[in-house]
Design brief:
alpha/beta, N-(1-d-carboxylethyl)-l-norvaline Dehydrogenase, domain 2, binds 6-phosphogluconic acid, about 475 residues, Rossmann fold, 7-stranded mixed sheet
Length: about 475
Amino acid sequence: RLFDFGMIGLGVMGRNLLLNMADHGFPVLGFDRDATKTQALETSATAGTTVKGTSSLEELVQGLSRPRRIMMLVPAGQPVDDVIESLVPLLDQGDVIIDGGNSHYIDTLRRVNYVKSKGFHFMGMGVSGGEKGARFGPSIMPGGDVEAYNNVKPMLEAVSAKVNGSPCVDYMGHDAAGHYVKMVHNGIEYGIMQLISEAYSLLQHAGLSNAQLHDVFSKWNEGDMQSFLIEITRDIFAKKDDKTDKILVDLISDKAGSKGTGKWTSQDAMDLPVPITVIDTAVALRNISSFKEDRVKIAKIFPGVDKINISQEELIGQVHDALYFATLISYIQGLAMLQSASSALKMEIPLQNVVRIWRGGCIIRSGLLETFYEVFLKNPALSNLLLDETIAGLIKSKLPKTRIIVGEAAKAGIPVAAISAALSYFDAYRTERLPTNLVQAQRDYFGAHTYQRTDIEGTFHTEWQ
Ligand code: 6PG
């Protein structure tokens, strides 16, 4: 018999997504050069499903019904090009190749055109939700070739997460929009993770134990800050190390890794240009974290952090509001970036569908997404969520305590770079006249870069000396 869907790369994401498809009634075929992985695929299949593994690419291609649907989940970069090269001689006109990894959207653009020139379809697709998501329902961000999308749509809808019965997958726009949306998703993810880590550090300074942190995050997850990242943070504070019986997070090195998607978001935001200061700060802080040796030495030159003199209960409330506020800003920045990129790169990204499919399955799913969905449903072209009344109301309610805790952290010497970045972004946006008139004067002074005036139309230059 022929199989409906083929997967290249049976790492945990590829395997789990394939098993998910099989559970939804699709006969699937997986390829990996590593025979232990093809075996692992077959042995982990649910009884009664049709799942087969192979280490022969020819067998994979020959085993699929036409037009073939082949997805790859391999590391971003050269491996994706290598897979395409090896597939091209084996495929027939009209076959569909999907790249479900975290590829850079510029690479995807190039590949779309290359694969098209060979007579096949190529679709870049973001998949979010980690291992569990892939197995039981991810958020899926396909874009580009509409024909390719329509071909796999029923399968993607079947395997995706569902929110109120609605599948967390939709067409994200032209060209490389799928990978673009996923890149920004990851940028927001970096932002929120950094913000949570700053909240953690403030609460630790106030003397909260891991057990108390677990309780605080538990409560937050049951309230207006409900989100996947808050939920897993809650669980992390309760997880014991099986070697020492201590709480594991205390034993983990503070050097944060990254695979690049956050950095790409910042780089591309600079190119647009769009300000995404929370995300930039999150990337920078992962970088600072890796300069461990310098930090250890510098800590000795500038020792000591002052105590914040606020009751624990009050401080928890302030940290809650600051985290809520700054998380909201992280989404606002990412979504404003998507809106700009959508027109600058002619991708026509439907923002209302982006936030709709982010409500479930993905790493940044949270209660807030439902609010964003309602806002973009009313006004899909909204350039910045700060312009929306509902969002403005949320911001206003969290602002007073955010200001207090940012001030207290600065006085005590506790780094809250991303929370501060969120606050400054907000304050800059609500400033009608920024001091950048002075920057313009300076540019004209030393470089004759000219300036515009507020009182007379035209372009001016002054001999300043
Ligand atoms: C997701 C995640 C996923 C992956 C990140 C991690 O949406 O499921 O974003 O794609 O965990 O790429 O990125 P870093 O290794 O750069 O933190």
